[in-house]
Amino acid sequence: MAALPSSVDTSLNKLKEGAQAWAALPDTERAAVARACRQQLATLDLAWEEDNMKCLGIDPSKRDFYNTLGFDPFLFIATTADRLDKVADFLEGKLKDLSKEAKRQLPESGPLVYAMGGVGQAAPGCEIELWASADQSGEAAQEESEKGASIVLGAGNQNFLTSVDVIERAFRAKECVFLKHHPIRPFMAEAFAHIFAPLAEKGAYAQCLDGDLAGAHEAFICHKSVTHVHMTGSGATHDRIVASLKKAGRADEVAFTSELGCVSPWIICPGTVNDGKWEDAAIEHHTTMLTSAFKSSCSMNCLSPKVLVLPSEELWPQRTAFLAALQKKMAEKPDMPPYYPGAHQRYAAFEKEYSDAQKIEAPPAQPAEEAVKAPYGGQDFKILPSLLVNVGTIGAADCKPYALKTEAFAPVLAIATVDCQSAKEFPMAAAQAVNKHLFGNLSCTMVCPDERDEVLDKALNELDYGCVALNMWVALAYGNAFCVWGAAPGKYTPENPQSGTDFVGNAANVPNVKKGVVTSPFLNKGVAMDKPLPMIVADCLTVLASGKNMVLPRILASSQAEPSAFFREGCLQRMEPRAAV
Q: If 0-12 CB within 10 Å is exposed, 13-18 middle and 19+ buried, where does residue 215 land?
């Protein structure tokens, strides 16, 4: 085992020394630290965005279709700000009413349903519910254990995932956090150091780059001062951590939580309204939304749609029309570079399994001549077209299940059929099929035109996923800290982790939560994601979310200048020049 560098060893020991004091801090004082971190966003330098774009395979000096230069900082700052705000509200006792009483209970002693309000401006007209076990006796008190350093292993695909993980461990779990940044995101170190400086001043935060470990990853995980590890990543990384802790004899001493992958289903139910016949506008809307969700981040999210679940042509005669519209949308919406290491190899494995797969070419998000050199090992920015693979009928003898059991983390979408003779029974049949045959239990989306009733609620309850979305992409719920994110409870074992264990979110602390459910009207343009967020809008929203002073004059001035004008003074500075909108 490689020796851990002394600087990391010292930091871990110092975190352990202060762990008891941080855990014992009154909640009001901890809330003050959270609010101080929130205020740091107003003075955050966004110079990291140039390297962020290079990491994604985008030339930062040129515009790309998705306006990444404006959108990514907004997403990171808005998500981080919302999490810190709600965590502070909870610690100050302002959220007690939300968890006092359930709105209703599903029949037959089903789960309690807590209404948590709207998803937010990103998803107008959408609501959050937390479904909790009616048996509140299952909420066991946490045992007091030795306090030590809590390692967070940063995510590789989204910057905000890492900030949320740090906030959850430091402020909700009351642990002293040591963050190791992901190998392809070292450029975020200064931003995180700035945001969490108030936490570091309390002796409750430290960080390092992956390279700072000098290959001593095992010694890092198994360090004597570590009492908790949380990771967002792959099952392979999870298994290496489990093996390392067992080898060091620390498996029973170090708590381990994780958010892993999932072959995420996107279920299309014909419904019974209008005898299951959809209007052209409905097909247009839902193929647009599915395409946008699938292509987001080059389909390299743990919640990217990976299996499109459909009824047979006999049950839903519009199946062919839906697939044709989907293929058209995929050919129109630009492709992002496949930035995540190993994407081409994973994609090739699906091509090998499905020799009849269909490739759908689309324009690149940025002209090919603007392509940038891959800055990190294992990256290959050569565009991968969307790959549609037909697995057949789920559970049938001739089903080709590779795509149901293997997460691509690449632009691959499986087309699957659920055998069912009734449109009314299809939601339940589909839920049972994905529960049984698909890998993972993190999140899924169900689309259905019918009014919500007991039948639909039974299907939503049946879906064995930590977060379930009705008529919208489940990703839109992640940014709201009242919802939950993580694998469905009760299925995790170290030997078969599925999508991991433990929730983040639930800022109001509703007891015994089993899943989050987010709902939208069947037709809701606000969640269609049909157009990228305009650069000027993203810039303005970033300033507003950050809490920077003199917001209104800056925004008004920016309307007379190029979109980045108000970033050029003070601390929300970013690179210049930037291409005008």
A: middle
* Beta strands 264-268 and 504-505, pairing class: unpaired
Give the 3-state secondary structure of 219-255. Answer: HHHCCCCEEEEEEECCHHHHHHHHHHHHHCCCCCCCE
Residue found by looking up tokens 């599925």 in the block: 498
Task: Give pLDDT tens digits for 374-410.
Answer: 999 999 999 999 999 999 999 999 999 999 999 999 9
pLDDT digits (tens, 9 = 90+) for 128-183: 999 999 987 655 555 557 899 999 999 999 999 999 999 999 999 999 999 999 99
Helix (H, G, I), strand (E, B) or coil at 196: coil
Q: For residues 110-132, b (16+ Cβ closer than 10 Å) or e, as one string?
A: bbbbbebeebbebbeebebbbbb
Mean per-residue pLDDT of the chain = 92
**How far is residue 537's CA from residue 397's CA, in Å, rounded to a whole number?**
51
Is there a contact between 489 and 514 (Cβ–Cβ < 8 Å)? yes
For residue 384, the one-letter residue type is L
Is residue 151 within 8 A of residue 500, CB to CB? The reply is no
* DSSP symbols for 135-184: -GGG-PPPPP----EEEEE--SS-HHHHHHHHHIIIIIS--EEEEEPPTT
Contacts 24+ apart (CB under 8 A), 420-425: 420/311, 420/312, 420/315, 421/315, 422/315, 423/269, 423/270, 423/271, 423/272, 423/276, 423/311, 423/315, 423/316, 424/272, 424/455
Question: pLDDT confidence of 548, banded at 50, 70, 90?
Answer: confident
Query: Residue 382 is encoded by which pair of tokens?
Result: 């050569």
- For the CA atoms of the chain, what is the radius of gyration? 23
Count the alpha carbons within 13 Å of 324 in the hemisphere toward its beta carbon: 6
Quick one: tokens of 361? Answer: 């070419």
205 sits in which H/E element: strand 205-208
Burial of 375 (C-beta count, 10 Å sphere; 0-12/13-18/19+): middle
Cα 119 → chain centroid = 15
- What residues contact residue 26 under an 8 Å CB cut-off, 6+ apart? none
Q: Are 409 and 435 in contact (CB under 8 A)?
A: no
- Give me the residue label for tokens 């305009």: 534
Neighbours of 552 (CB within 10 A): 9
Q: Give the burial string for 6-44 (b: 16+ CB within 10 Å, else e).
A: eebbebbebbbeebeebeebeeeebbbbbbbbbebbbeb
Question: Would you call 521 exposed, middle or buried from its count of C-beta atoms within 10 A (0-12, 13-18, 19+)?
Answer: middle
Antiparallel, parallel or unpaired: β 443-447 and 264-268 = parallel
Half-sphere exposure of 88 (CA within 13 A, CB side): 16
User: In this predicted model, what pLDDT tens digit does every residue of 187-228 receive, in sequence order?
Assistant: 999 999 999 999 999 999 999 999 999 999 999 999 999 999
Write the single-letter amino acid at 126. Answer: C
DSSP-assigned states of every residue in 49-88 = HHHHHHHTT--TTS--TT-HHHHHHHHHHHHHHHHHHHHH
